[in-house]
Write a structure and sequence with these properties.
Helix content: 10-25%
Strand content: 35-45%
Number of strands: 53
Largest sheet: 29 strands, mixed
Distance between the termini: 87 Å
Length: about 675
Amino acid sequence: MKRYILWIAATALLLAMTAGAIALYGGRTDTEIAAEELDGLQSLTREEIDSRLADATEIALDSENTVITGSGAKLSGQTVTISSAGTYRLSGTLTDGQIVVSAHNSDEVVLVLDGASIANSDSACVYVTNGTVVLYTMSGTENTMTDGETYVYASANDDEPGAAIFSKDNLILSGEGSLTVNGRYNNGIQSKDSLYITGGTLSVTAVNNAVKGKDSLKITDCALTVVSEGDGLQTSKGEIVIAGGTFDITAGNDGIQAQTALTIGGGSFTITTAGGSGNNDVISESGVSAKGLKAGTKLVVTGGTFDISAADDALHSNGSVTVSGGTFTIASGDDGVHADDALLIEDGDITITACYEGLEGTTVTMNGGTVDLTASDDGLNASGGESGETGGMGGGPQADVSSDSKLVVNGGTLTVNADGDGLDSNGTLEIHGGTVYVNGPTNDGNGALDTGTSAVIDGGTVIAVGSSGMAVTFDEDSGQCSLLYNFSDYASAGTKITLTDADGAEIVSFTAAKQFNSVVISSPALAQGETYTLAIGDQTEDVMLDGVSTTIGTGGMSGFSSGGQSDQGGGPGGQQGGGMQDFLNVDGVTVADDGTVTITAEGAQNLLDEAEEQGLTVDKTVEELEAITDRKELMELFGMGGGRGQAPSGDGGTQPEQSSDSQTQSGTAAETAAS
């Protein structure tokens, strides 16, 4: 036993070393330190238990006649009190009794559960007031603990015990058998110190938290099934470390919630919180936290398999999140992965099938791995820190800008399907490597790319499609060329985009998941001054990159007026000439995703007022404006028809020939003439 307790102390000391994003000791990363700590968790072996049982005190539980053979324990009614260090084998049934451990602080008590069933109508089944206790389940045995729905305390000021298995000291659960715990009053299993689970099969139900530690909760090599109205696993003061095991957690609140750090190095996890991802409206009204994995300071995942359906964020930290391994399938009612500070993806395979925002943090960095996400708002969002407002990012609503926000992709494969912005940074957007595919918004209030200050690319491949109203491309001072191509009508979902060089060699290819009328392409193969062939569905056009950042057609954020190509390559910043966003956003004008326009009488008058304010002459009456149902017709009426190309589509159509003016690359010759 001494050896086991010494291991606990050594492990606790080692686990306390995890701190900071980069560990200074030996130049190892926080992820590497965590992996070493997780390897330290181990179980008390069967051989050690067998050797202890030779000298164990035997306690044969019986509601009418409990028999104790050996020293260190005494019986009073149906209460067995253990006061000395040693090993105690428990078998049999207590219908309304309790095991109390009241040893010395330095004592080690091993309770071997060998087919024990204990129920208590008004208190805990096992109550440890002093001494470190190991609860070990024998192989092949089934053991149960069920407490009462109400507790009776000696005084009105008492609130302990508060769980079916409750310890004021360190508590270790281990073994090869099964233990079922029914916490009908409050928590299922609780330690007011450190709680370890190092083996066995556990099933815990609780009206509050199922498994709760205070200073720490450390788990490996167990099969744990949890159904709780509160948190599944929780610490009230310290960290949670999980090295492995199988976890099936259904929680009314958070699945796994660490007050400080949460470190997971392996295991198989199925987690459902507050009824799943479709219940976000319910928890929003109640203010309940129902996150899948939640950390107070930092969340580190180095491995494991995760299937999470959370009404709140699936992965959340009030500090930082680092994922360096693991396979995730996530459905979230809020964010897929959220960090209040830095979010770092080093490796792993993350699939987010539903969420509000996919990856969110003050900084979001992806160095490797695979991320495939579908979001009802932004795909990736870097936001936080000191922020202000600016109108310098196009004709739409003012955007928050933060000098602390940064979205960086250095490697890996990122696929985004977002109804809001695809990649959104309130500060800088940087692409240095990897492969990025974005299916962006179909409305003109968002863009496939969005940035508060700058967007630069010097490596990697990017294909981002979406609506043209708020389209952003990369800056002219980038180290790699990019092309932003906008057109008026929408190409349909399923349309294939291909860019080839002068020799016909394919540079990039992508099939859009939904309709679009704007595409951003960047690849290391692109070169300034070269001409390429862009194919969108059945339509093709030769485009020349006249700058590091080239824009063709009018985009809401390209710094480009109607007709032709921006002289400066169309970098971010500057408002759209002609203010088309103002016309689309006036009260009484609604634009559907398919381009259908609905204009009320009030909207028609607002359009005329807006035109007069911008110095435009519109030869239409209110009644004639009300009759317009096509977005393209509305754009042409207000002088915007010449700035965007004729829509290529996946199902054919015609596209006029390119202008003979080699210095002006509009979508069509007809548009060039119109401008």
